[in-house]
Design goal:
The protein has 261 residues and is mainly alpha-helical. It folds into 2 domains: 2-170, no CATH class; 178-257, Arc Repressor Mutant, subunit A. It has 13 helices and 5 strands. The strands form 2 sheets. The protein has a 3-stranded antiparallel sheet with strand order 3-5-4.
Length: 261
């Protein structure tokens, strides 16, 4: 529970910035700045995972009421057949910030299909200009007063959730051992790999790791590329949970790096 509270607090604090970021894109910010802001929203979306989504029901119960956008704002202002699109009604400020951030990504960034590219390729610039046409941007426009109110509501919802009596009771309980917390956030196959590495401080060769019982599906590839992909997936889960553990590669050996002590 402690790890969740830390993860939620960090994700919520970043999400608090989303309305301002989307409003900047919807305004008259230069194309390069809009691209940089959308990249930041995409990074937040990936980093956040389901941390906030998983507690939206709790946030709804703690919210002071819904956030509503009239027809013509948001999705209904971006799609071709708006008459069949309902106006937005979000049950909490967190839900509203999540969905508006995703609307910006869905209509202005994801169509670029950039993969891991950190820069806007020249051949994508005409499409990006088209996506950011003024009549599309204005669908996500917000006033400064609206943004300020929205952000204050996110702060209040966050404070209520973090100070809920049930959560405080969990916070006072002794924290489980690091290994238990690490294994708890992994899939069954990922656990097999990490448990095997935990006992071997010097790391394990890829060819040995490929034979760890239960670490791979019986009919799946066990190539170096597959092992590296597993390493990436495990590290992403550990980072998302805020755990001070990481898998690193040295030569053709995979090693589990633990905190000192």
């Amino acid at each position: 529970m402690l790890e969740f509270l830390r993860s939620f607090k960090a994700a919520s604090e970043r999400l608090e910035l989303a309305p301002n970021a989307v409003a900047a894109i919807a305004g008259e910010c230069p194309i390069k700045m809009a691209f940089a802001v959308l990249q930041a929203l995409q990074w937040d979306e990936k980093r956040r995972g389901g941390t906030v989504d998983d507690v939206l029901d709790k946030l709804t119960a703690l919210s002071d009421g819904p956030i509503k956008w009239k027809h013509g704002r948001g999705l209904s202002g971006l799609v071709r057949y708006s008459d069949t699109t309902f106006p937005h009604v979000w049950s909490s400020a967190h839900e509203a910030a999540l969905e508006v951030s995703r609307l910006a990504l869905r209509f202005f960034f994801w169509p670029l299909e950039l993969g891991d590219s950190k820069e806007l390729p020249k051949d994508k610039e005409p499409l990006f200009h088209e996506l950011l046409a003024e009549n599309r941007r204005k669908a996500l426009a917000m006033t400064l007063e609206e943004i300020a109110d929205w952000q204050e509501r996110i702060r209040r919802e966050r404070a209520k959730l973090l100070n809920a009596p049930a959560l405080r009771e969990d916070e006072q309980r002794p924290e489980p051992p690091l290994k238990e917390r690490v294994l708890d956030v992994l899939t069954e196959q990922q656990r097999k790999i990490v448990e095997y590495l935990w006992k071997r401080n010097t790391g394990v060769r890829f060819d040995v790791l490929a034979d760890v019982p239960g670490a791979f599906r019986s009919n799946s590839s066990r190539s170096d590329e597959t092992i590296l992909a597993k390493k990436k997936e495990i590290n992403e889960r550990l980072a998302k949970a805020g755990l001070p553990v990481e898998l690193k590669v040295s030569g053709r050996r995979l090693k589990l790096v633990l905190p000192p002590g």
